[in-house]
Amino acid sequence: MHNASTDYNSQQAAVQNVTILGATGTIGVQTLEVISQHPQRFKVFALTASTNVNSLFKLCKKHTPQYAVMLDANAATELTAQLKDANVGTIVLQGEHALSEVAAHESVDVVMAAIVGAAGLHPAMAAAKAGKRILLANKETLVMAGNLFMQAVADGGATLLPIDSEHNAIFQVMPSVKRENLADSGVKRVLLTASGGPFRNASLAELQAVTRAQALNHPNWVMGPKITIDSATMMNKGLEVIEAHWLFNAAPSQIDVVIHPQSIIHSMVEYIDGSVLAQLGNPDMRTPIAYGLGYPDRLHSGVSGLDLVKIGRLDFSEPDPIRFPCLRLAYEALKVGGTAPAILNAANEIAVEAFLAEEIGFMDIHAIIESVLLASQIDAVTSIEQLVAVDASARRAAKDWLKHKYSSMPAQTLKVVIK
Ligand SMILES: NC(=O)c1ccc[n+]([C@@H]2O[C@H](COP(=O)([O-])OP(=O)(O)OC[C@H]3O[C@@H](n4cnc5c(N)ncnc54)[C@H](OP(=O)(O)O)[C@@H]3O)[C@@H](O)[C@H]2O)c1
Predict the structure, then answer these.
(1) Pick from 230, 214, 242: which is nearest to 336 by CA?
(2) Residues flanking ligand 1, CB < 6 Å
């Protein structure tokens, strides 16, 4: 273990209180691993989970936060009992509202937004309005409500740091003045790298027969089940294209995806003079997490140094829109704008759940999303309440598809909205 006092600038920094939304998940646990290396710099204020009592109990025992939040009421009762038996003084709160409360609490400095899916939207908005430093892993917040969220960040005086490794890489290689105004900044385009997932070289016929276990076996990254399936379909990259649009004010034509199977270059920015700047590192989320926690300082993350000689080569190729139609759908939803990305996201969440439950095949995932998008009325985004209703309606339409397999979905064209 390194000596934490050697962190650049760490001795001057005051202790910061951190809330981790989605503490029991892959990102949540890795965040706690980084925080544990810097006890003089960070204090865990609140940890949250949905139903996973045993994991949250262990984390509370180790990190003794002031608050723990369980979404589920029975889980909250169980956690309260376990903590009492173990003599841990953490106060247990319950429900959706409590997630937002610990994100916006006046004692909190930093919020790691690492809940999976649309469920992360409300607490991330609460953190933005309360002016927190937000470490945003939950890309679905920006996919659903990019304009409203970015506005809330600006109005609330929050600091937004992207944790998705690709956006974190872009953030690292683009000076802040350019990030704020991509159009006039000399940036030609951003290049999101993609591993291509476990089926990078699979034929269409092979993709039809893909199993849940094969899809959950990502070659480079250890992640939660939803994002792992999203990586296999390349919807993850599609969601990241939409995320990059909002974070860097980039037009769809300024965002390209390049397949890079080694996942060593985490993304790049190309400038008009021909320079391409890249951020490299081993594929380990503790690097972007440490960057977000320490920014603008650099902190030890526990990630081993990059050995390029050992890696030997870095490969690149174009994504295939025929075998990976989810990427195309995400670009289309972004170009249509308005509520289309929220519909795409909701239909994707239902389709991925159904695939994980082994109710549908791998190539049904994009078919469901496309059907729901085609059958939906697309409007300009006006409020979070509207987006919550749009999300619910798209989920119903996707479930309808699952019940009736296409038959109930009217064939329509995507209704374009003026943003
Ligand atoms: N994993 C990565 O390497 C990675 C990389 C980049 C971006 N991200 C993004 O980070 C987010 C988290 O990903 P992950 O891989 O860490 O997910 P994960 O391992 O599945 O963890 C999800 C976390 O969210 C909680 N949760 C689930 N549903 C919830 C709900 N309805 N309300 C409140 N909390 C809920 C879970 O609690 P329980 O344990 O109780 O279910 C868990 O703590 C996703 O948006 C993902 O796209 C992840």
Answers:
(1) 242
(2) 22-28, 49-52, 71, 114-116, 119, 137-140, 164, 221, 223-224, 226-227, 285
